[in-house]
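Entry type: protein chain
Record version: 2
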Amino acid sequence: MQSSSYSLRSYRTLTVLCLGAIGLWSYSAKPLVDPGDLPDENRFTKVVLAEKLNEPLEMAILPDERVLLVERHGDVRLYSPATKQIKTIATIPVSTKYKDKEGNETEAEDGLLGVNIDPNFEKNHWVYLYYSPAGAESKNSLTRYELRGDELVLSSKKVLLDVATQREQCCHTGGSIDWDRDGNLYLSTGDNTSPRATLYAPIDERPGRGPWDAQKSSGNTNDLRGKILRIHPEADGTYTIPDGNLFPKGTPNTRPEIYTMGHRNPYRISVDKRTGYVYWGDVGPDAGVDSVGVGPTAEDEYNQAQKPGNFGWPYFVGDNKAYNDVDFASNKSGAKFDPAHPVNDSPNNTGLRDLPPAQPALISYTAGETKKFPLMGSGGRSAMAGPTYYKDDFKNAKRLFPDYYNGKVFMYEWMRDMILAVSFDGKGAMTKMERFLPNMSFSHPIDMAFGPNGDLYVLEYGTGWFLKNDDSRLVRIEFNGGNRKPNIQIAASQTAGAVPLKVNLSSNGTKDFDGDALTYQWKIVSQAGGAKGDGPIVLTEPNPTFTFQKPGQYKAILTVTDAKGLKDSREVDIMAGNQPPQVTLDVAKGNKSFYFPGQAIAYQVKVTDKEDGSLANGRILPKQVLVQATYQDEANAQTKSESGHKFSEATYLSTGQTLMEKSDCKACHFTDKKSVGPAFTDVAKRYKNDANAVASLSNKIIKGGGGSWGDAIMTAHPQLAMPDANEIVKYILTLSDKKVASPSLSPQGTYMPKENEKGSLVFRASYKDKGANGLPPQMADQVLVLRNPLVAMGASSSQSKGITLFKMGTQPYPLVVVMASDTYVQFDQLDLTGIKTMEFAVAVPKAQLIAVGGRIEIRIDSPNGPLLGQTEELLPNTSNDPADMFKPSMAKVSITPTTGQHNLYFVFKNEKAGKSPLFVPATVQFSN
């Protein structure tokens, strides 16, 4: 029997997080928005304008709907809606690398960082760029150019402002440009401070350690870094200082350009042209846990400045959570900084010692679940701020966004691929935040802007850092407030077979969201041209039947038109003249739902093909049939066998690989090439013979760290449980070995399951035929999944009753909390042949949660069906030790012998419980 500890991994952590978030076992989910107010999500369409960009960072939408965007390596690119093409119109020489502590050059965040156009662009054609000029001088420059037609006139360059930077050990550039209604330009700058000496506040005051001290920049009133600057550009290429910045002009030891200070990396900013409020996301530090005497867990921030102010970094984070004044020389902890009276006494400070009071963040969140802002979820962090939408700004627009979004600020999360719509009252206080288009996928949105036609443009950076990503795109989100195209569903009863081939074509499921009457037209077209020389065959029924008499490859094209003449089309490919093979795979005897380690499985594969013959008659040879057995995380295994299923090798993932695919690892790592972090293959090679690698690397994944790979930092992932981090590391370490394909098994034989496997056992049998009538070969396969006998209660994909499910982070299954008696969890069609006992792992926490306990009944066919057995009474945990609160107890049940497949019900009972919760069942172990 396997240990139950496997499926109980993270169980205690999950339970504490979940129940801590919802209070005393009760959760009344109050919607943030009245669903009736929300526009239908299907009224929004994402249109891809350009893709495979090379690190796009910021864009500006021109009055004629052309889109000007910049890529970090220096290219200025222009998208034309007339030609629907994007082209490079200029290349700015930029610095994109820095030197690490060994003096080696490595990729930096520097480069061509920001772009915007002048408020009077239609008259003066001025474009503003912010970039890191190539050359020995360490600085970033705000410049102005003329855009003449499609040409960026490089000779027209004017340098408005230089920001002195460090290019050693560095990072955190900011670089976003925006304007207010008075023609003032706002520019964000990062703290330009290496985070690689500490995961907390970088305030290293030792001699020569300026690159690791953000007090020189963000906390320095006489430095332009770690700020949002506000200037007024003049026609001659200079600038003046508008009234009302943080420090009045002439104040000693200050820079008058500073509007707000105390920022780490305000990467994207936005100015509300009506209110003048400035919004930005500040990308926070990397610490995964609170550290006594050092400081708090890292948080990202969304901020609002209604007036100039100090927003606290590097002394505070989030809602003014204070760091300690750590002495890096003695490694001693000092007092916590005071947000009401922050003091910068660093020897690297050239500005005022006494700083303005620190302002708390508008929204702040950690890598884990955040109770105050649960909508943010968990994962990597990169907060960014987008535009405020006002309907009146688009009076002549073709496609206005709906009134629902009027006055809302669009904020977005780069790492979590989410966009938020945030509402404020007349005084600027936040009243509501909600997901915008939660079902639309994005690939690391890095800039957003509304165009003159009312569309929302989104620039997607793509999956990996410092790479030309295939999923990097310029997209436009269009809202359709009027008639919508028909939503077409298309199907064919079969898409391949011998002739004559009779096919039932179906449009079932096709609908019109506006309720319009629809007309249907099918065209049968030979892909060789026409319908075998007779032209397309047209059918006007919604669900016609057509018989293909001649061999060939065809398309069946369905066009659906609504009553107002709006139409759309879909098509399906059909191959007539080659019958696909038939493959069957079955367990010859014994249980057909579970495998049991150490107990051999007898299996048999049968293959027949109309043209090729069969295994049985010897025309198909055993060596031509591929049979493989693989172990796979149960959450991603096939749950049923399907003949003819098109198999993808990508579905066979280890537990660790599956967890990693669900995480944000790929934002900083690739399997075989360096990104921000090292390639996984390099990690595997370095730690191949390190017996402590799993423990040490798992700890680093959860808590964060750096120094092992030059200056690269591992961001903390506190939302990951240690067992899951272990699985991820184990997978990475396998990459040091050369992969060898699994050998093919015999079409008939026995297979001995491995000991200590945790996932499902997946059998796959496949055969590719030889083709016929000049048509290409076809493959058929069948997949048979045998489950591990240790099953998580949250793994049920069936309808259950009266339970609460909580999905946390990358956990493969949700946690099951039984909220009342006479509730159940259902598993469909499990084979109980040979099953003699079931053993449950159940927590009955008492303490503050007042669980009452109860029993579990095992029933088949319905919740009131035959009773196979039941547990003894499960009693509440009596321990007063909080560490034992969620410790599970084991309850073993002998069941009535049963054969065949049944729907299985675990019914939870306590007739005296009333409305009280009963317990938390984690797993059930099936044994024969």
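Comment: The longest strand covers residues 151-164.
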